[in-house]
Amino acid sequence: MKWYLDFGHGGKDSGAVGTYNTKESDVVLKIGMIIKENLEKHNQKVITTRQNDKYYSLDYRSKKANENKCDYFVSIHMNAATNKLAKGCEVWVYDEKSKVYTLSKNICTNLSKAINTLNRGVKVSKKFSVLRKTKMPALLIEIDFISNPSVESNLSLEKYIKDISSSISSTLLSFANNL
What we know:
Layout: E1 2-7, H1 24-41, E2 45-48, H2 58-67, E3 72-79, E4 89-93, H3 101-114, E5 119-124, H4 129-132, E6 138-145, H5 149-154, H6 158-177
Parallel strand pairs: 1-2, 1-3, 3-6, 4-5
Antiparallel strand pairs: 4-6
């Protein structure tokens, strides 16, 4: 199995920034690199957009995944809202017929339990460039709301980061092992 892991934002694009100045781009890079390591320990091939704090365009991300003929595309993000109390994980897919629709539901269920947050479910959108322009089944994970001060505070804890990474990794591996 060849996975494409896309760690949202990077470089000049920090993505969402929490109340305490935690950058989405830094958090998803840290989480993503642990997921990469976990998948590779189980003989999965992994291609990533970035391995440091560098900016890459949306077109670059989908083009690299397509050129590498990856089997699945997973984009990792933190959500944000003006409502500082907003919480929960959600996963976006291109359509309900996607081969990763059930995987997306499992990611939401497992992640919400692992970090004790609301399961906001699977959402469908044709607007996300990385879902639209990839040739392989793709999903976009919004782990939780970095704009929520308690979530942002938890992101500084190694155990919390590990719980997120382990939950996503184990769900992806379970999916791969059942194909």
